[in-house]
Amino acid sequence: MRKSIIVVILLLFLSNCSMNISKEADSSKGTFDYSDKIQINYEIHGTGNSTIVFLHGFGASVETWRDIQLPLSKGNTLIFLDLKGFGLSSKPDDGKYSLDDQAEIVLAFLKTNHFHNITLVGNSYGGAVSVITYFKDRSDNARGNVHRLVLIDAAAYEQVFPFFIDVLRKPVINWIVMNLVPTEIMAGFILHYLYYDANKVSEERIARHAEYLGQPGSYDSFVGCARQMIPANPDSLSALIKTIAVPTLIIWGANDPAIPLEHGQRLHREIQNSQLVIIPNCGHMPQEESPDETVKALLKFME
User: Fold this and answer.
1) pTM listed for this prediction
2) 286, 253 in Cβ contact below 8 A?
3) What is the CATH number of domain 2-15+29-45+53-302?
4) Distance from CA of residue 32 to its chain's centroid?
5) Helix %, strand %, coil % of the chain (to 5)
6) The pLDDT value given to residue 139
């Protein structure tokens, strides 16, 4: 509790340096109507035969994939989703923000659009959603449509929450952070924590993340996701991971402060048909901090 209060005070102190940079509109955006109240924002890039679907981490958006978008779109069809509660997707105060809820929406999107032979990529929180989506896909169809998994610094096992998740799980403090701290300060503070190389946390990169943190409904969605992040039966999910039967690429920043490398190594041991690529001098989001190495690993895996 004391640590959380110190973090809040520091964020407020830094708020004098806020900025406001806008992003150009992307013409390839679309909206998937999951229900009358839930619309999911997505983008499609490229027209290749291989379909790769990307799920971002907690608090992020489709913007997290920008650095690897162009090289991967050559020969592949890339689909970026804003998970419910994040980016430009709906943020209803409906209490349905569990990993299972997110996976149901992702699977409905894939089925509705008749995507097949999918490579499902997930970073951090999105990695956990990817794993659950894979199992739901298999329960509906023995062969399934998800034929490959790519887990990038993925949440998979029980662990101590990173400080920003812990703050969002605390009443009052979470309201102060989400309503009084400028979004640029929040984004910059978190990125400096998640990156290994602080020099790569540019103003432009901070703006990418900050733009979506202050969207209407963000308080309810961020707090809801943080509070429901632990699966109903985490031991059951850990056991299921051992049964993943599709080729799986595990990419991990060697210096990840949020989810330690040991988790990636454990995934590699427990998923029989898996490869592990460790990126040196890299933190929690290799697709942003080390995009060239991430693209190289993905293209080699897709071959």
Assistant:
1) 0.89
2) yes
3) 3.40.50.1820
4) 18
5) 45, 15, 40
6) 81
